[in-house]
Design goal:
This protein is of the alpha+beta class. The chain is built from 4 helices and 2 strands; from the N terminus they run ββαααα. A two-stranded antiparallel ribbon has the order 1-2.
């Protein structure tokens, strides 16, 4: 039996703490990844981080013991976008 495709979405920026906004397996996971790519959201493929975060429920904030792992991904995303923390609070959608 093959392992199911899994995906999890995090929201951060205007929130004080990152939180899980979506998660799913197989078809739902494919839709989460597809929508993220369509919206220009960075998709990290980290099975260990996914295993940790998948224990959380949608809407749940990232617990303190997972901050470092999530911070590594977020810092990479900021770097890729040429941003620094805090920039997202001043950017306007337009």
């Amino acid at each position: 039996m093959t392992k199911p495709l899994e995906a999890l979405a995090l929201e951060y920026g205007k929130l004080k703490t990152p939180k899980v906004t979506a998660k799913g397996q197989n078809e739902l996971a494919r839709r989460i990844i597809e929508e993220a790519k369509k919206q220009g959201v960075y998709v990290a493929e980290d099975p260990q981080l996914l295993a940790l975060l998948s224990k959380l429920d949608v809407g749940e904030e990232i617990p303190q013991d997972m901050f470092t792992a999530v911070a590594v991904i977020l810092s990479w995303v900021y770097w890729l976008k040429g941003m620094k923390p805090g920039d997202e609070k001043t950017q306007h959608k337009g």
